[in-house]
Amino acid sequence: MRAVIRPHRVSGIFRLPASKSHTIRRLLLAALGEGVSEIAYPLDSLDARSCAAVCRVLGAEIAEERAADGRAANPPDGEGKKLVRWTVRGIGAGDGGLSFPSSPAAGDVGNSGTTLFLALAAAALGKVPVTFTGDEQIARRGAGPLLDALAGLGARVASEKGCTPITVEGPWKGGRVRLPCPTSQYLSALLLAAPLAPAGTLTEIDVPLLNEKPYIELTLSYLDAQNIPYETDGDFSFFRIPGGGRYRPRNGPVPGDFSSAAFPAAAAAVTGGPVSLLGLNPEDPQGDKVFFDMLSRMGCEVAWTKEPLGRAEPWRLTLSRTGTLRGGEFDLNAAPDLLPALAVTASYAEGPTALVNVAHARIKETDRIAVMARELGRLGVLCEERPDGLVVHGTGGPLKGGAVDGRGDHRVVMALAVAALGAAGPVEIAGAESAAVTYPGFIEILNGVII
Fold first, then answer.
1. Average pLDDT, the chain
2. Hey, which CATH number is domain 20-243, 3.10.25.10, 3.40.50.1370, 3.90.1170.40, 3.65.10.10?
């Protein structure tokens, strides 16, 4: 699908979709937990639905409720109804065990790397083989370090070159493993699964490399909420987790997505705004909230305001720009998903902007460093690739119009759509449908025309 975005100023109030990171963790914990959990206002996107499908493969029962609810930021169906709740009956047994399917199973994770990595570890808790497949991008995303760790903990693993299709079969026997984490999802996978290993099992994890540390803090917040015991050192280079735990039902809404919020926020930075965002909480542990500090450093006005007591969204975040955007240097090691949005914002800044310490952006859905350099180059922006980052030489003014390719990467597509807003002419984006992986309706929000 191709979309054409014409230059225009973006302003208004945007209710953000729920966090993908929270939604997938809530689904997995509910699926592996005891009893029934109600997940209110989850993200209704391709990645989230892939996770729900895999949870069903693992044995969970998931029912969805749809309604004409204005609070839901999800896309409506043909009757104008939106997904407002998932009700999940987990496979946790009363004795602390897990009731996995009794015969081999297979699940398709689609484009969701988070689902793949977290579900691989979950499947290692069972005693029958589970095979995971995915789309073409997933088939190129290696899981080698995670698979080595699972094998070290007793699981049987079958895969070619660490990529899908991957078959995993337990039982989880515990032990001590070494797990380098170019993506934090490897470590989150073990942290969420290890507590459910049999009682008496001890899992110890040495972590010689860890990128995206805030995502581990997010995962640990779920263990803390479940009163799961674990030991760790101050820098997350070692963990010790006893087995015999269980996940109890948890109800309530899913927080808004700071990663998705980066794109309407970048639109405000590029065009001036003002843009107000609903559904975020400044106290949420999501690491990508640092984007708003970065925008402030670049010259944007950023303001959190507390709404009157009783409002469904107690916080409002407003962004605008009246002056000139300034370049700078930003370390994105903890927040690599911000690279596309920040690169586009930097394209409109005066002077160079260096995005550094983010080599792991090359192992996402695409090599985002190379792709953003190439596609912004088509719009007249000079970009210098570095092994671990990108230097963007901002134009301080309009970009060129033209044709670009999102390469099937949802964050690249949304970033290029934002880049079009301040261009001298229309920008045509190939692969625009990929935005629905995490932010359904984003192209329509920007008045994109589908061709």
1. 96
2. 3.65.10.10
